[in-house]
Design brief:
Shape: elongated
Helix content: 55-70%
Order of helices and strands: HHHHHHHHH
Structural class: mainly alpha
Number of helices: 9
Amino acid sequence: MEKAFELAEIKDDKKAQYASYYLKDEASYWWESSKILLEGKIITWEKFKEMFLEKYLPSYMQGQLKMRFLNLRQEDMTVAEYEVKFLELVRFAPEYVNIEAKKAKRFQQGLKPWIRSQVALLEIRNYTALVQKAMIVEGEKESTKRENEGNKRKFEKSKSDQGSSKFRGKFGKNGGDQNQKF
């Protein structure tokens, strides 16, 4: 909604009216009844947001979402998936990410230990740069893993080819000793 206000250049005194226009069904009924109770009072955008959140995202739920953010760990997600979840929950704990360096540090804390140890050495304080470096570390690990698996297969194939050629050399095409005559 804030983006729409900025784009449409909505003045502060009109933001609550503008936002309420987009409410549908139950939310629209809730707002109509709330306006009646507040008749004569000026409803600022901040007051509107406070009332809306109180109704549709009570403080206990906000607290739960804040705890989900604070306990968020990458675990079996990719860095990209972890970032999506991080950005989804970050708004519920703004005091932990209110400056760029705090946001980067919090993101880094939730990374898988092997990724975290690699990016920690870089001492990155910029969130976007940290996410990019974490993705690079993750991608390099996957690339190395694929490369090692390919080398392992080549080695095993080479080893099995050597074994079969030794067998043929000793026993010939017919499977018997080449010096043996029938």
